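User: Okay, second chain of the day. Same drill as before: sequence in, C-alpha cells out.
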Amino acid sequence: MESWLDFINSNIQNESDEIISQLYSELLQFIVEAEYRGGCHDSSAVFHVILEELGIENVLCIGEVKTGEQYFDHSWVEIGGKIYDAAICMPLEGGRRHPPVFASIDLDSNAETELGYGIPSPVGLDEPARTIAHINLGKYALRDPIPNRMWFMAEQFASELGYEMDAEELQPKYASRLRVLRGDSL
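Assistant: Same drill. C-alpha cells below.
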C-alpha cells in the first residue's frame, strides 16, 4: 500500500492534482483497511461527487472491464480521459483482485493498465449493473441497505481532507446525475 501511495503523491503538479491524489489516497486506504468488497459503484460515486464539489471535472462511468478473456461489470471515474479506479483492488468474494488504477496507471507495475475499460462482452451487463446504469444517483443511494449512506460517505471523506460538505445538500444537487455507459454493454 505504501508504494501505491508514494506513486500517487509523486505525480502532483498543481492544486487539482493534489486534491485528486489526496481524495484517491483516502478512498484507497478506506477500501483496503475496511475490506470494502464490491464497493465500486459507491466509491466511484463518492469520488465523483467530491471532485465535482471541488470544481474538478470528471465523468462517473459504468461498463464492463476486460481482463484476459474474462469480463466483469464495474464503475470508475475518468478525469481528462484517464481512469481512476481504487475499488478494483477489493472485488466481491470470488472476484479477481487487480491493482488499483490511478490516471490509467496500474499501481503495482507503474505502467499503463492492461485492463480493458468499457470493452463490452458478448453478453453485456448483468441485471444489477444494467439497473444501476439506468438509474440516477438518488435512486441508487436509496437502494443501499443503509439508505443514502453514499451522501454521508462523501461528507465524511471531504471532512477528512478539510473540506466542509453537507450530505443533505449533496443529495438534491447530485440525485439526478447518471453514470455514463462506456461500451455498448446494454
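The first strand starts at residue 59 and ends at 67.

User: Thanks, on to the next one.
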